[in-house]
Known about the structure:
Blueprint: H1 3-16, E1 20-21, E2 26-27, E3 37-42, E4 45-50, E5 56-58, H2 61-69, E6 77-80, E7 102-105, H3 112-117, E8 122-125, H4 132-137, E9 143-145, H5 154-164, H6 168-192, E10 197-204, E11 207-210, H7 216-222, E12 226-227, E13 239-241, E14 254-259, H8 267-270, H9 272-275, H10 278-282, H11 284-287, E15 291-295, H12 303-317
Parallel strand pairs: 1-9, 5-8, 6-7, 8-9, 10-12, 10-14, 14-15
Antiparallel strand pairs: 2-3, 3-4, 10-11, 11-13
Helix pairs in contact: 5-6, 6-12
Amino acid sequence: MSPKHLSVVAALGASLLLSSCASGASATAEPPAEAQVISISNEYGTAEIPATPERALGFYTTDTDILITLGITLADQQPIRGDSGFTTFPDFFPQEALANVTPFANYPEFNYEKVLEANPDFILSGLAYDTEIPKKLNPIAPTYNYNGFDGEDWRVHFKKTAETLHRTEQYQAWMDKYQARVDEIKARIKEAGIEPVVANMSFYDGKIGVDCYGIACLVFDDLGLKITPLARDNGGDGTQLSLEQLDKLKDIDEVFTSVGVGEDRSLLQTSDQLNASTVWKGLQFVKDDQIHSFNMEMVYGSPSGHMALLNEVEKALLP
């Protein structure tokens, strides 16, 4: 950020007396209808958040999706990823809510100047794993910070955020909608009489990774599917397999893997290294082409992303 913008940010911080908060924040009781602000505090400090923001900004795309789901009005500029081919919001986000919103790249390099330019009156940030981020967002607008990448089910943070912002009705509406879809798909799986062993898998640096990174295993668990034990070996970190260990994958029936924008097939399907292996080509899920790709932005957990991955699993298992 330029010295000019740093001075602007500093001035804003002095005039607005703002500070950030995270998922552990304690909030005041539900305010009366005429209340103008919600006061919250935690180890990051205190903040006076507008009870009804008019220009809210989500610091990461998952935060923008949460704002939409909670019925909070967006600023007309919102961040997106700036890597992996992303040029706009994920196509599984509510497009109507984003119709008049302009995206700007904010990852892996954070663009605080564009955040300032968006002139938000409230910021939601799930990137508090980086303790420098709250310090930089504080002077721009009242910010509710939480660490959405701490390994916890993202829905725990979603619920705390909704409670803090007094939006529990909107939170519960989404949860009810999601559970209804889970129940529907579980019933269809039972009716189909299938009991597949599923895996979240990747191929990187010459090794197969089988793990529960992201939300895939959350969806699998919600549906009552059997997850390969490889995904939770090594203290829950999953398993890394060399090309000489591919036979350990023989009990897996369905594989799910994340891909970048515009990619329909993953390295699991296109790698020359894997395709040169007779063991790999002999695995049943490879022979049956049961490797299912999904948008990598679903991995990190948000209302629309979670629902979208649920739909992807349904399509894969019940075509």
